Amino acid sequence: MTSTATMLLRRLHEQSQTEVMARARAQFHGSNEEFLTLAEDYDTLAPRLRGRFLETLGLSSEDFESSQGTALSLAVSAETGRFLRNMTLSHKPARILELGSSCGVSTLYFAEALRTLGSGMVIATELDPVKCAQLRDHVRTAGVDVYVDLREGDVFQAVSELDGTFDMVFIDVWANTYLDLFKQTERLLRPGSIVLADSMYTAEDAVRPYKQYLDGNPRFSTTTLDFESGIEFTVVVS
Ligand SMILES: C[S@@+](CC[C@H](N)C(=O)[O-])C[C@H]1O[C@@H](n2cnc3c(N)ncnc32)[C@H](O)[C@@H]1O
After folding, report:
1. Ligand 1 centroid from CA 105, angstroms
2. Where do the domains of the chain lie, and which CATH numbers do they carry?
3. How many CB atoms lie within 10 A of CB 50?
4. How far away, in angstroms, is 88 Cα from ligand 1 center?
5. Orientation of helix 3-27 relative to helix 105-117, angle to 10°
6. Which of 77, 107, 217, 236 is buried deepest, with most CB atoms within 10 A?
7. Which of 72, 130, 150, 172 to mutate to test the pocket of ligand 1 (most atoms within 8 A of CB)?
8. H helix runs in 73-227, sequence order
9. What pTM value is reported for the model?
10. Which of 72 and 224 is assigned the larger pLDDT?
C-alpha cells in the first residue's frame, strides 16, 4: 500500500472511531468514568458478544445508523479493511460490488488491492451526497480513482441497473436491508463468487433473516467469521 493511502486510512479510521465514541457518549446516561470502563470492557469482549453488550447499554449499532444529526462514517475497522484487502489480493476479482460505501474507507482497501493487482473495478454505492463527495476526494488522493466506479443514489436502484456478474460482493448498508438487497443481487452472482457482509454480530437481530436465508439455501455455503463485527463469508456453490 502506498504511504499516501496508509496515512489517509489512518486518519479516516481515527475520525470514524472518534465520531462513534462521541455519539455513544452522547447516548450513554452515566458518568465519564463509567463510560470509559465500558469502552475498555467492549474492546476485550469476544466479537460475538459485542452486539448484546451494546444492546444492554441501549447503544445498539442500529441506533447509530438511524440516529439523527450529522451522518457518521461508520467505516470498517482497520482489521476488517486488511481482511478485505487480503481477500481481494487472493481472489483476484475482476469486478467487486460494494453495497454501502460511505466516505470510502472499505472502498480504499478494495481499490488499493486492485491497484496492486493492476486490474479490476470496484463498483461503490452510496446514498448520501456529502459522503459521495468525500469518497471521490479520498480515492483521488490515494491515486486509485481509476479502480472505482461510484454509483451515487439508492443502492436498490443502483443494483437494478447492473448486469454481468461480480466476483466479490461486500454488504455494509443498514442491517435490516441485507436480505432484500441480497435477493436483488443474487442474479449477479456466479458459482465461486464470494459475498462478505459486515455487522453480523453487532447488528445480530437485524441481520438474522439474511443469515437464516443463507443457511437454508443449498446454492450457498456460508459461515460467520468470529472476527471484529462478525463477517458473514459466503461462497456461491451453484
Ligand atoms: C456502515 S456504512 C458503510 C461504511 C463503509 N463500508 C466503510 O467502510 O467506509 C453504511 C452506509 O450505507 C449507506 N446507505 C444506507 N442505506 C442506503 C441506501 N438505501 N442506498 C445507498 N446507500 C445507503 C449509508 O449512507 C452509509 O454511509
Report:
1. 11
2. 1-238 (3.40.50.150)
3. 19
4. 20
5. 160
6. 107
7. 172
8. 78-91, 105-117, 129-141, 155-160, 178-185, 204-215
9. 0.95
10. 224
